[in-house]
C-alpha cells in the first residue's frame, strides 16, 4: 500500500524549508557580510513572509494556508528564475540589476557548495510552492 504525504506533513516541510532558507540568507548577509543585490532583496520579500505565514497556519491548524505558500512560492520563483538567467548569462548585461560598486550576481561569491545561490533560491521556492500545493489536497479513501 502506498503512503501519501499528509497535508499537515507537507505544510510542515514547506514551513521548515522557508524557515531554513530565510535563516540562511540572513546568515549570508549578516554574518558573512555579503550584500544582497536587488533581485536577492525581491526574493527575500517573498521568502520571509512564507516562514511566518506557513508557521502561523501550522500553529492555528489552518489547512488552507497552503494557498499563500503556492502564490508566494511562485512569485519568488519568478524572481529567482530571472536571477538565474542573469547569473547564467542568458539575460543581457543592460538588464543587470547589480551596480559596478555594489554586489555582483555573477561572481564566485554566488556559490554555496558549488551551487549558484540563484539556483538554490529557485529550488527552494519550487519546493515550497509544491509542498504547499500538496497540503491543499484532501486525502482520498
Give a structural overview.
β1 and β2 form a beta hairpin. α1 runs antiparallel to α2 and α1 runs antiparallel to α4. The model has no long low-confidence stretch (mean pLDDT 83). It is globular, with a radius of gyration of 16 Å. The protein has a two-stranded antiparallel sheet. It is built from four helices and two strands, in the order αααββα. With 141 residues, the chain is mainly α.
Do you know the CATH topology?
A: Bromodomain-like
Largest sheet report = 2 strands, antiparallel
The overall pLDDT average reads 83
Task: Report the count of strand segments.
Answer: 2
Which class best fits the helix and strand makeup? mainly alpha
Number of H- or I-type helical stretches: 4
User: What is the molecular shape?
Assistant: globular
Strand order of the largest sheet: 1-2
Helix percentage: 55-70%
**In angstroms, what is the radius of gyration?**
16 Å
Low-confidence stretches: none
CATH architectural category: Up-down Bundle
Write the H/E string, N to C: HHHEEH
**Number of structural domains:** 1
